[in-house]
Amino acid sequence: MLIMKKIIFLLLFLPFYSCNDWLDVESEISVTYRNYFQSESDLEKIMITMFGFEKNILAYGDHYLDYVGLPRDYPSTYTKPYQELNYETFWSKGCDNFMSWSNYYATIYMANFLRDSQYRIKNIPKERVNYWMAQANFIKGLMYFKIAQHWGEAPIAPSSEEAEASAKSPVDTVLAEAIRCAEAALILPPHDKLTDANGTAITSRQYASLGSVHTLLANIYAWMGGLYGKEEYWKKAEQEASFIIDGKAGFYDLENNISLLIQNTLGKARATKEVIFSIEINEQDDRWYDAGNLELRYPGTLLINYPYTETDPRKINNTLREERISVNTVKQLFPDPEDQRRKEYWYKLGEELTVEGEKAPFKPRFAYINKWRDAVKATNPESIMQNIGVIAMDGNRIIWRLADLILLRAECRAHLGMTTEALKDLDRIRDRAGLKGYSGATDKTSLLKEIFHERERELFGEGERYFDIVRNGYFREELKGNYKILSEQDVKDGALYLRIPNNAFNKNPLMKQNLFWLWHQN
Known about the structure:
This protein has a domain at 8-282 and 497-519: Serine Threonine Protein Phosphatase 5, Tetratricopeptide repeat, CATH 1.25.40. The strands form two sheets. It has a two-stranded antiparallel ribbon with strand order 1-4. Strands 2-3 form a two-stranded antiparallel ribbon. Helix 10 runs antiparallel to helix 11 (231-245). By secondary structure, it is mainly alpha-helical. The protein is built from 23 helices and four strands. It has helices at residues 8-13, 31-34, 40-58, 64-69, 80-83, 87-90, 102-116, 126-151, 171-184, 210-228, 231-245, 258-265, 283-286, 327-333, 340-344, 381-385, 402-415, 419-432, 444-458, 465-472, 475-478, 488-492, 515-519, and strands spanning 275-279, 375-377, 390-393, 397-401.
């Protein structure tokens, strides 16, 4: 397991960034940095800096589109306006910093800085320089892909030695840049051949490998398939996914059952059998001692309450501050009683519970998520005095795992008319969950909807559902509130993206707001 080092190098770079984009990066880099690249460890330290930004983006913070996509019938008073596309709430000052793309562009800046500094690198073999450049290109490609998913049109950052204003580029240009960066990272070896600056084998799945690069490409092409409806993109996505699933990018396999998935992949064991790409989380780097509330690393962790953060299930019934999902809704999502995810993802779903001091058992109305269950309790005396109990669920933040990719390939194959092959992928995931093979309708429309629902079940709470909905065009039937009445023109104007953050307009007269959000401004 990688322990992300607490190095001074990370802290030295941070003053270059404010809450804005690259226009706030100091244009002059000190002599210290210009002469810094004297050993391979110097390159790795820059990567560790980038890993820090990557963690802040992918493992922490408010992700409003995740709030929108998380299934629940009783959202809290905080998240309900986002779930319903309340325009005033999306424009509120309180959410502006959380909607900012600053960390994305700060990460891209670091990748550009590394690229632009190659001529300064001394005493490092060319193949190892290329290795670290490929690591940076993967992260850069991932950032552009995430920017395209969240904001659509966005600027392409200039070199690290420029600070000029840039207008937004069309979303296809942003995605093309993501592809270009990912393809530049294809020189990376499989995960079992990765080594650090000291030649030591790397076991962390946060370092990019051939498998994670092809997975990134598969996701980009599938997203483009959904945006543009072109077969060529579905075909490329299917090919990229097959490269990994067929074992050409290193060994990956499904955990044998759902219990082991929770224990090994999603839990504190941090096993990597099924993991393609993840963010390292640990007590040392994440300062759990100082935590004052539960870390929300997945959207599904919003639903954590009994028996972790609350010991009396009756209290869940009457609180408006809790995110809640009913037992009936969960049973609709997981309709087959034989589905092991129905048993393992949820704590005693719908069963009568014994409450201390009460003679009669309590019949819960709400479901209690149990997908993340290795609770970390507060040890700080101040936190304990404030009755702060569980502060984290131990385990890494999984971004992509094999089951996700198998179902994505099934979706691609359904689009391509490869019905038999799509069913094989679908049934592989169903079989692991203890279910029989799919026996429903297999026309394209029906099969795609079933694959969507299987992804909804398998990846519940892991942050994929909103983007699955957008890619498939299901927003009117699967989302709530104003999402149900969006017109095609609204979607074209950017309704399914976040608004451009206010700080993006600082020092940039070329920046323009998305048309949809411009028309729905307070």
